[in-house]
Amino acid sequence: MFTLQQCQEIFNTALLREVELLKKKPEELYLPVEYIMSSGGKRLRPSLVLMSFNLFSDDIESAVYPALGIEFFHNFTLLHDDIMDKSPMRRNNPTVHTKWNENVAILSGDAMAIIAYHYISKCRAEFLTSVLETFSQSALKVCEGQQYDMNFETLQDVSEADYLKMIELKTAVLIATSLKTGAILGGAKTQEANTLYDFGKNLGLAFQLQDDLLDVFGNSEVFGKPIGADIIANKKTYLMIKALSVARDNDLAELKQTLSNKYSGHAEKIKTITGLYHKLNIQKYTAGKIKCYYDNALQCLESVNSGARTKEYLRSVAEMLMHRER
Amino acid sequence: MFTLQQCQEIFNTALLREVELLKKKPEELYLPVEYIMSSGGKRLRPSLVLMSFNLFSDDIESAVYPALGIEFFHNFTLLHDDIMDKSPMRRNNPTVHTKWNENVAILSGDAMAIIAYHYISKCRAEFLTSVLETFSQSALKVCEGQQYDMNFETLQDVSEADYLKMIELKTAVLIATSLKTGAILGGAKTQEANTLYDFGKNLGLAFQLQDDLLDVFGNSEVFGKPIGADIIANKKTYLMIKALSVARDNDLAELKQTLSNKYSGHAEKIKTITGLYHKLNIQKYTAGKIKCYYDNALQCLESVNSGARTKEYLRSVAEMLMHRER
Question: Is the pTM for the entire model greater than 0.95?
Answer without folding.
Answer: yes
